[in-house]
Amino acid sequence: MLTAPIGLLGGTFDPIHIGHLRPAIEAQATLGLAEVRLIPNHVPPHRASPFCTSEQRLAMVRLAAAENPGFVVDERELKRDQPSYTIDTLISLRTELPDTPLCFLMGMDSLLSLPSWHRWQELLDYAHLVVSMRPGWQPDYPAEVADLLARHQSQDIGALHRQRHGHIWLSDNLPIELSATRLRALLAAGQDPRYLLPASVARYIAQHRLYQAEP
């Protein structure tokens, strides 16, 4: 018998902020996720190296998880030396949780770039994809993504509970136009980041003088 699904949110989290957390909170409530696992990357394959160390980013993710009931931290990608490929993480989790539906949480920008991901055709063999998108937005899907949606999109929440993997759920979320790049620029300028990230994370950043402009 299957257990309740869990959510998986990977990212550089440099730093973690409401643009990461708010869609995950909404997915947790809407889909009835038993928990949400925050999975910080060690070596992100699709972007430049992080500004902060793995230890600093892990500390911030732990603080954010502690402020959100049902959120936990999964450190497996930080323990690898190779790039943090999502398919490797999903295979590892599926081995550990054979009877748990896995819901990999991502933004629409990630879905649109999915064909550039390592072994992207295999992701749905291990998890559902839960995609956060702005209400009313009609993306221009690449042909490969459009085909994937035609074959796997579902509007049945129950299907995410009844099956371990294989569905794509598009979720309308509150629009939050915030990126880690924009937040780092704000912090470097000495501006107040209040309400843009958890208070405990803001205190950690201030205490350790992270993301400050070069003197």
From TrEMBL:
<dbReference type="Pfam" id="PF01467">
    <property type="entry name" value="CTP_transf_like"/>
</dbReference>
<protein>
    <recommendedName>
        <fullName>Probable nicotinate-nucleotide adenylyltransferase</fullName>
        <ecNumber>2.7.7.18</ecNumber>
    </recommendedName>
</protein>
<keyword id="KW-0520">NAD</keyword>
<dbReference type="GO" id="GO:0004515">
    <property type="term" value="F:nicotinate-nucleotide adenylyltransferase activity"/>
</dbReference>
<keyword id="KW-0067">ATP-binding</keyword>
<dbReference type="InterPro" id="IPR004821">
    <property type="entry name" value="Cyt_trans-like"/>
</dbReference>
<keyword id="KW-0808">Transferase</keyword>
<comment type="function">
    <text>Catalyzes the reversible adenylation of nicotinate mononucleotide (NaMN) to nicotinic acid adenine dinucleotide (NaAD).</text>
</comment>
<comment type="pathway">
    <text>Cofactor biosynthesis; NAD(+) biosynthesis; deamido-NAD(+) from nicotinate D-ribonucleotide: step 1/1.</text>
</comment>
<dbReference type="GO" id="GO:0005524">
    <property type="term" value="F:ATP binding"/>
</dbReference>
<keyword id="KW-0547">Nucleotide-binding</keyword>
<dbReference type="InterPro" id="IPR014729">
    <property type="entry name" value="Rossmann-like_a/b/a_fold"/>
</dbReference>
<comment type="similarity">
    <text>Belongs to the NadD family.</text>
</comment>
<dbReference type="GO" id="GO:0009435">
    <property type="term" value="P:NAD+ biosynthetic process"/>
</dbReference>
<keyword id="KW-0548">Nucleotidyltransferase</keyword>
<dbReference type="InterPro" id="IPR005248">
    <property type="entry name" value="NadD/NMNAT"/>
</dbReference>
<feature type="domain" description="Cytidyltransferase-like">
    <location>
        <begin position="8"/>
        <end position="184"/>
    </location>
</feature>
<keyword id="KW-0662">Pyridine nucleotide biosynthesis</keyword>
